[in-house]
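ok here's Branched-chain amino acid transporter AzlD:
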Amino acid sequence: MSLWWWIIIACAAAYALKLLGYLLPRKWMDNERMLRVAGTVTIGLLASLTAVNAFAGGQSLVLDARLGALAAAALALVLRAPFLVVVIAGAAAAALLRLAGWS
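and the structure:
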């Protein structure tokens, strides 16, 4: 089977799963435990995506300018900077570290 068929199957499965969510009873979704689980899963997925993008290079662990960008963005978040400032701080840190030769 071609790669495109697998992509089409994955899209159809994701769409079907989304439609299946509309068939669930409303009281299941209003449950406090369901809301807590949904929030926790979202945070966990975002944290894992951030870690993979910051530290992975192919199949190996890589420490490069992305680590400095993540640290700068985290510092901006701790200082309660607006989101745009957080993004600019991370980009500027990565650019400066790559300019300094740490890539």
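+1. The helical segments are 3-22, 26-29, 32-55, 65-78, 83-99.
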